[in-house]
Design a protein that fits this description.
Elements (H helix, E strand, L loop, with lengths): L2 H8 L5 H9 L4 H6 L5 H6 L7 H17 L2 H6 L5 H9 L18 H12 L3 H8 L6 H8 L2 H12 L5 E4 L15 E9 L2 E16 L6 E9 L10 E10 L6 E5 L9 E12 L13 H38 L1 E2 L2 E2 L4 H29 L5 H26 L1 H4 L8 H12 L4 H17 L3 H8 L6 H28 L11 H28 L7 H26 L6 H28 L4 H11 L11 H11 L4 H6 L10 H14 L1 H12 L9 H10 L5 H18 L3 E2 L5 E2 L13 H4 L1
Parallel strand pairs: 1-4, 2-4
Antiparallel strand pairs: 2-3, 3-7, 4-5, 6-7, 8-9, 10-11
Organism: Pseudoalteromonas qingdaonensis
Pathway: Lipid metabolism; fatty acid beta-oxidation
Keywords: FAD, Flavoprotein, Oxidoreductase
Length: 753
């Protein structure tokens, strides 16, 4: 019995849905990481993302106007998205970011798309999701790539100007993460449409979690097609198919809503029982019956890399800006809380991870802007950037403490905190994405010979043995090269290459090469020892996926520092860069150790350790000094901090504006504040019970002059407003700081309480 025949009994074949998913995306930087030779030359050749004049004008115009219109407290306390906001989104073509100009769309770049969605999200998650979905996986994207000319000409102009609102229905109660197992069925039949007898499909479906479904005018629908009467050919099960159905079509049920954490975007159900649709409703026409899964995974890769990562970056930038300003302004025990090491530890982590988030956002959208659809990279971006966003937000909540848990217009974190779990669950739940997709899909896409080997093992061709043996020889040579490279980098770590012109980058570039060489060896041995069982060993494969992910993050950090940070700002940016890159490398190394510690074959585990010299932790560490340095930088008003919080656009009177005014007022009065503190310490003046008394004492004693006094009084007023939280009367009507109710009625704070 040949080796190929033996392996055929052990290794599972690739299913049709798996094959379509593998064929749908591109291999990009992740391929070189997996193979042990991270391609920094290709990384540096990626064109830097910039906004065109038209894209910048859209941000400065319609987006800025939208932000001023949004009252998040009003949205969250209401039932629907305000009609004037929905109409504004239609009028200004927010739903047409990806639609070509020839159809009336804006045709913006992935980077611009991401920036717009993320900017809106800093003010309102509900509005951001409403904009995000039509510009991600949905009818617009599917029509662009697969629709007939007639479908494109009819629908795309209507989607561009908001006459049609789209939704796409994939998830069923019985099929969530296993989207390929949807139970919704379309049966090929003859029926009547517009008074004529035509060939079509009788479709029955039950879908949930469908964003925009309650207000959609056109329904994108995924279902399986069956042909029991063989009207189309010999096959009965024809596969997943995508159709586009007007909401007015007889039998279509839309309108019922879910309530996703109280975030007021439209999300709901759609159902239909034996609804007859003509073949013309199929996206791309009858020839695309059965191509639905291929169409979906092809489009999902790009959308997954833009929309949800944008929300993760948005919440990180909001958290960073708010936490840094609050830490500088809020005082306890006579000191700004940003001077306490407990706060500094959290604040540095927020700042470093926000830098990493922005670096990953930029690199991922740059790749998409090149026309690539890297399915593994976009899965990495979706999982890690939403998880890091959640982590950063939790730290910001800890710093702001009581201010962070009181809802109202002044709370800049509450909306993101409530909405963040939504980003974790959609477009592939994060557990699925990490445990099955990143490495599970990556191993087949990134290994140079594995997919061909599996195909040859299960091939029915006469020369299958010869083909298999040829591929096997190449695979052995590839694995031997991986082992030798990892052994050399482990024994002689200084041999790892680096081509950066910046000395501070070279250490990290070498580290990525060393970790990558080990990953290649561990992946090879996993396939050799575990074979098809690796698919079920989710915890092991997820750790290898983590290594790939964190090395991609480290490469993004390096590229951002080299290309997006000006030479004049590098000194300010260095602590952010060092923290972010070291954190990513440490996470990758920890994942390697966890993989080895839990590898089931003891002998193989010991051999892998020896081969890669993986006996201890060797990556650069995040020291307490780096934490202090970054926490200090994070509280300064610098160009790099502005760059890393650029998505947050304060509008007059909102929480961001109130916090920023107090923060900038403090920075403007640092010298005067130092005079007052010195006078208190020397007992020249007495500290008052309230800071206003202290200022009066300082003015009387001549410690500060009248101009300084006026400026400090202004700062104190802004500081007191910034550390306040929103109050409501007994019936939960919002009270302004002066005691008046937000609805205009006058009521004192005392009587309200």
């Amino acid at each position: 019995m040949s080796l190929r025949t033996k392996l055929k009994k052990i290794l599972p074949s690739i299913s049709i849905t798996e094959q379509e998913a593998l064929d749908a995306g591109d291999v990009w930087l992740e391929g070189s990481i997996y193979r042990g030779k991270p391609d920094f030359a290709a990384l540096r050749d990626v064109p830097a993302a910039t906004l065109s004049q038209e894209e910048q004008a859209f941000l400065d115009g319609p987006v800025a106007e939208l932000l001023e219109m949004i009252d998040e407290s009003e949205i969250q306390s209401g039932t629907h998205l305000p009609e004037h906001i929905l109409e504004f989104l239609k009028k200004e073509r927010f739903f047409s970011l990806i639609i070509p100009k020839k159809f009336g769309g804006l045709e913006f770049s992935p980077y611009a798309n991401s920036t717009i969605v993320a900017t809106i999200s800093t003010k309102s998650s509900a509005v951001a999701v409403t904009v995000m979905v039509p510009n991600s996986l949905g009818p617009g994207e599917l029509l662009l790539h697969f629709g007939t000319e007639e479908q494109q000409n009819h629908y795309l102009p209507r989607l561009a100007n908001g006459r049609d609102i789209p939704c796409f229905a994939l998830t069923s109660p019985e099929a969530g993460s296993d989207a390929g197992g949807i139970p919704d069925i379309g049966v090929v039949k003859e029926g009547e449409y517009q008074g004529e007898k035509v060939l079509g499909l009788e479709v029955t479906w039950d879908k949930r979690y469908i964003t925009l479904a309650p207000i959609a005018t056109v329904l994108g629908l995924a279902f399986k097609v069956q042909d029991p009467d063989h009207l189309l050919g010999d096959k009965e099960d024809l596969g997943i198919t995508c159709a586009l159905i007007p909401n007015t079509h007889p039998g279509v049920e839309l309108g019922n809503r879910h309530d996703p954490m109280g975030v007021r975007f439209y999300n709901g159900t759609t159902r239909g029982e034996k609804v007859f649709i003509p073949m013309d409703f199929i996206i791309g026409g009858q020839k695309n019956i059965g191509r639905g899964w291929q169409m979906l995974v092809s489009c999902l890769g790009a959308g997954r890399g833009i929309s949800l990562p944008a929300l993760g970056v948005s919440v990180s930038q909001v958290s960073f800006k708010g936490a840094a300003e609050y830490a500088a302004v809020r005082e306890q025990f006579g000191l700004a809380i940003g001077q306490f090491e407990g706060i500094q530890e959290k604040l540095a982590d927020i700042a470093g991870k926000t830098y990493l988030q922005e670096a990953m956002r930029v690199l991922t959208t740059e790749g998409l802007g090149m026309g690539l659809k890297p399915s593994v990279v976009t899965a990495i971006a979706k999982y890690h950037m939403t998880e890091i966003g959640r982590d950063v937000l939790n730290s910001a909540m800890d710093i702001q403490a009581g201010k962070a848990i009181q809802r109202g217009p002044q709370n800049t974190l509450a909306s993101g905190f409530v909405a963040q779990p939504i980003a974790i669950t959609v477009e592939g739940a994060n557990i699925l994405t990490r445990n099955l997709m990143i490495f599970g899909q990556g191993v087949m896409r990134c290994h140079p010979y594995l997919q061909s080997m599996v195909e040859s093992i299960h091939s029915q061709e006469k020369d299958a043995d010869a083909t298999f043996n040829r591929i096997l020889r190449k695979t052995v040579g590839y694995s031997t090269g991986n082992a030798l490279r990892a052994f050399k980098h482990g024994l002689l770590p200084f041999t790892a290459p680096s081509a950066s012109s910046l000395p501070e980058v070279r250490e990290y570039e070498k580290a990525v090469h060393k970790l990558s060489s080990r990953l290649a060896v561990y992946a090879d041995f996993s396939l050799l020892v575990l074979g098809g069982k690796l698919k079920q060993a989710e915890m092991l494969s997820a750790r290898l996926g983590d290594v790939m992910s964190y090395m991609y993050a480290a490469m993004a950090s390096i590229k951002y520092y080299e290309q997006k940070v000006s030479s004049a700002d590098r000194a300010q940016a260095a602590p952010y860069f060092h923290y972010a890159t070291r954190w990513a490398l440490q996470q990758a190394e920890q994942a390697l150790h966890a993989f080895l510690d839990n590898f089931p074959a003891s002998g193989t585990r010991k051999f892998m350790r020896f081969l890669t010299w993986q006996y201890g932790y060797k990556m650069p560490t995040i020291s307490d000094d780096l934490v202090r340095e970054l926490a200090h930088q994070a509280q300064l008003d610098t160009a790099i901090k502005a760059q890393l919080t650029h998505l947050v656009k304060p509008t007059p009177g909102d929480g961001h504006d109130i916090n920023e005014q107090a923060y900038k007022a403090k920075l403007a009065n640092l010298e005067s504040l130092a005079k007052v503190r010195k006078a208190i310490k020397s007992k020249q003046i007495r500290s008052g019970v309230r800071f206003a008394e202290t200022l009066d004492n300082a003015l009387t004693a001549g410690v500060i002059d009248a101009n300084e006094y006026a400026s400090l009084v202004d700062y104190n007023r802004k500081r007191e407003l910034a550390i306040r939280v929103d109050e409501f009367d007994y019936d939960m009507n919002l009270l302004r700081p002066d005691g008046t109710r937000a609805d205009g009625q006058d009521v004192s704070l005392r009587s309200a309480s």
